[in-house]
Design goal:
With about 250 residues, this protein is mainly alpha-helical. The protein folds into two domains: about 70 residues, Arc Repressor Mutant, subunit A, CATH 1.10.10.10; about 140 residues, GntR ligand-binding domain-like (Four Helix Bundle (Hemerythrin (Met), subunit A), Up-down Bundle), CATH 1.20.120.530. It has eleven helices and two strands. The protein has a two-stranded antiparallel sheet with strand order 1-2. Strand 1 and strand 2 form a beta hairpin. The chain is elongated. It starts with 11 loop residues before the first helix and ends in a 6-residue tail after the last helix.
């Protein structure tokens, strides 16, 4: 029996962005300020990170602009903002999926990791440290570290899922937009320490500690994204790029 392919998945930020766009066209004029994140989250029954993704997508589509410590203002009322053309899922939506999967992977890895896997994890950590010392990103070594944890489970499906979640993050247009605003030197020490804690728990074959360390790591990423996508940071970047808010 051949199953029909599923419909393309609905992205949370895209659904909410379209709802906000409809609200703008119905009730707002150029220059008017949108309600704050908390109010929008309550109105649409979603989380604040989802609202932030939606606002960012509308800003990239040219419908709103974010002002320093003030919020989002309408700059266009065109009929269909092209949020559907933005690649990938929202980074917060992707992180929620990672929270469901990767702590369990880390826990199983701590139970089952072979000496060979542990040695490869150590090599990945060493590569991260070297890249950071050069003031560079360590995406390849970081990705390899997470894939090795999945490989340690002995489950190929988990390896594929982990790889898909990782690629879903770095290929997300909204992730890339936020990432350009992040001072990575502020976050590298914390994220490296997170990986070291995961590694230490795997070496000790301590699944509870390994799982908890992964939860902390993903939480730290989410906190960094929330900081980097704050209206103050977005507006400062716009000013730096020579864009004057209305």
């Amino acid at each position: 029996m051949v199953l029909d392919p599923p419909n393309p998945p609905q992205r949370s930020f895209e659904i909410v962005a379209r709802q906000i766009a409809a609200m703008v066209r119905a009730r707002y004029d150029i220059g008017q300020k949108l309600p704050g994140e908390r109010e929008l989250a309550k109105s649409f029954g979603v989380s604040r990170p989802t609202i932030r993704e939606a606002i960012l997508s509308l800003a990239m589509a040219g419908m709103v602009r974010v002002r320093n410590n003030s919020g989002a203002y309408v700059v266009s009322r065109h009929e269909a903002p092209d949020v559907d053309t933005l690649e990938g899922f929202g980074p917060f939506e992707n992180l929620r999926a990672r929270h469901l999967v990767e702590p369990q992977i880390a826990g199983i890895a701590a139970q089952r990791a072979s000496e060979s896997i542990i040695a490869k994890l150590a090599d990945s950590l060493a590569a991260m440290r070297w890249e950071h010392a050069q003031g560079r990103e360590s995406d390849q070594a970081d990705h390899r570290f997470h894939i090795l944890l999945a490989e340690a489970t002995g489950n190929g499906v988990l390896v594929s899922i982990c790889d898909q979640l990782w690629r879903g993050q770095i290929e997300s247009r909204i992730w890339r937009e936020i990432h350009t605003r992040m001072r990575m030197e502020d976050y590298r020490p914390t994220w490296l320490k997170d990986h070291e804690d995961i590694y230490a728990a795997v070496v000790e074959h301590n699944p509870r500690r390994s799982s908890a360390a992964m939860v902390r790591h993903l939480t730290h990423i989410e906190e960094a994204l929330m900081t980097a996508s704050h209206s103050k940071v977005l507006a400062r970047q716009a000013t730096t790029e020579g864009v004057t808010a209305p």
